[in-house]
Amino acid sequence: MQSAVRRTLVVMSAAVDQASTFSQWPSQFDNSLLRNLRAEPLERDAYESRQVIGAHYTRLSPTVKAPRPALVAYSADVAKDLGINPDDCEGEDFLRFFAGTPPKEVECWATVYGASFGGRYGGQRGDGRAISIGQMHGREVQLKGAGVTPYSRRSDGRAVLRSSVREFLGQECMHALGVPTTRSLCLVETGELVIRRWYDENGMETVVREKGAVGTRVARSFVRFGQMELFAQSGQLPLLRELLVHALDREYPHIREQTGGAALSTAEKAVEKAAEKDVLSAEMVLQLFDEACKRQAKLVAEWMRVGYCQGNMNSDNSALGGVTLDYGPFAFMERFEPYYNPWDGGGREYSYGMQPTAAAGNLVCLANALAALLLSPTAEGGMGGHMEGEPQGEGEGEGTGGPTASSLSEARERESVLGVLRASVDGFGETFQALHSANCRAKLGLAAWDEDAQAIWDELLTLMSSQSAQVSSGGGVIRGAASAGGVDFTLLFRTLSSPQLLAEAALEDVDASVRALLEPAALDSVDGWPEDHLGAWREWTQRYWRRIVAEARPTQEVFAEMRAANPKYVLRNWMAAEGYEAAIKGDYSVVRELQEVLRRPYEDQSEEVAAKWAKRTPGWARGKMGLASMS
């Protein structure tokens, strides 16, 4: 069952029947969210920034202006999954729709949610520039950059072409890498100018006018941890319960099938089947949380495998479905740094190496939200803490002067619920470690993971990071500085996957083999590396190769496994810049070229493609604000 769930996370289900014409496509919408959740009563300006109470979403239409829309790129396979003929993606109707002007009869909405920052709840947030336009075939479609909503917090609700190109390519790259993610349907330039703060040629922040864009993203749902937190923190437990029912149907329908019969009371079993979908038991909630923990473990383990850093790991960026969501200050790490974070605002707390800890912290926030529902009295909209099958303790303590039956039962129920939640959070760590270890084993091409394998891995990361940044005279790392002996994460592991470096002959000339490993990945000439550092690399490679030889696996078998774990192509920040800078000038060919390259990240592709896109950070991009780091 778990393998089937994991496949569902990464691969969309089979293509559906296509609409005969694009104009008929909206007729396929089946908006369960609008039917089953609460809309905000529109007694005021729908677009005015405000605190929204008693509702899950606000109905509104996109307000983005697109005076001169132009299609930058689209994904044919996502279009097919949505029932759109790819040939229609280059038509005028498609362009107008996804530039932010859907037909008037299309119902659109924006949702409200909260957010925690490093475990500290920060109040209401919401879809500040994302507007959903429909649900169909088990997917929700959302326009990003579609205009102002009540949750825009006085911003303009727009998106710029620069960041939209990054998100479009980022989602497509992650999908091809096998990492759970939202998907991109298309990217449209609007022809509108948007005011933003960005960097000038000297790396100084300034106010600029940038080209606007609307991106269309797709997922089973966009339910976030922060939505659960909002309704728990504000005491709106009936809304939290309703949201969980919706989330079960969208993200975890198998849970209802597995537990629904057992969870229904005799009276509930007598009602019509349609009404059974509104039933929510404590078992369902606890199983949902346990599976959410496992999905987060899988997600973060895959991030670590491909060198991805989310940058901003606030809880509103954590999807309940366990996919990568909201590609803001993200980056694929180039020079290896254990605490790399492309976003200054994320710091060490949200850095590459701390992502498992940050994810666990967000799961604790989610657990607290669910506990509020599970432990609150039913009269207040909660679930009373009762778990099906537990003894209710009739008669306990009666007439003895001791605890009442009710108080003892409540205490047991509370500890039982909290114990299950804690066990699931602990299970996240165990699942992550098992998956991460399996990924590390595959990246090294080892047959088994044991203490010796762990030591080989740890020593390698120490070597990779020991010369990965210039250090000031005061001992601090110079942020954005060119490396002093650093290595590229992706290139090193891909080079390590070469058959010539896995053969026993590599031990016959260690110096030559070490150079063959390091030179493609070194950000500076290996000739300038300190001799003691090169000596440490020689010692590591001998230990590693002896382990490979001792395991005696067929070289091609090892090679194939390593290549499947170590991509050759990822979306590097400088690559994204090549794409969006060309697009800003009206040339979309680079974005489309990158889209095609990133569709096959594990293949060698042509020598021309490899020379152009599978290479170290160019000199012009090293230390450049907006690429090396961003605020």
Draw up the topology in text.
Blueprint: H1 2-10, H2 32-36, E1 57-59, E2 70-74, H3 76-81, H4 92-98, E3 109-117, E4 120-126, E5 130-136, E6 139-144, E7 159-160, H5 161-177, E8 183-199, E9 205-219, H6 225-233, H7 237-251, H8 253-263, H9 266-269, H10 273-276, H11 282-306, E10 308-309, E11 331-332, H12 355-375, H13 405-444, H14 451-466, H15 489-496, H16 510-518, H17 531-551, H18 555-565, H19 573-584, H20 589-598, H21 607-613
Antiparallel strand pairs: 1-3, 2-8, 3-4, 5-6, 6-9, 7-9, 8-9, 10-11
Helix pairs in contact: 5-19, 5-20, 6-7, 6-12, 7-8, 8-11, 11-12, 11-13, 12-13, 13-18, 14-17, 19-20
Note the gap between the termini: 42 Å
Q: Major sheet: size, sense and barrel closure? A: 6 strands, antiparallel
From the alpha carbons, calculate the radius of gyration and give it in angstroms.
Answer: 26 Å
How many separate helices?
21
Beta-strand share of residues: 5-15%
Q: Which stretches are poorly predicted, pLDDT < 50 over at least 5 residues?
A: 1-15, 261-275, 387-401, 468-484
The overall pLDDT average reads 88
Secondary-structure-based class equals alpha+beta
What is the number of beta strands? 11
What helical percentage do the residues reach? 40-55%
Indicate how many domains the architecture comprises. Answer: 3
Query: Could you say which overall geometry the principal axes of the C-alpha atoms support?
Result: globular
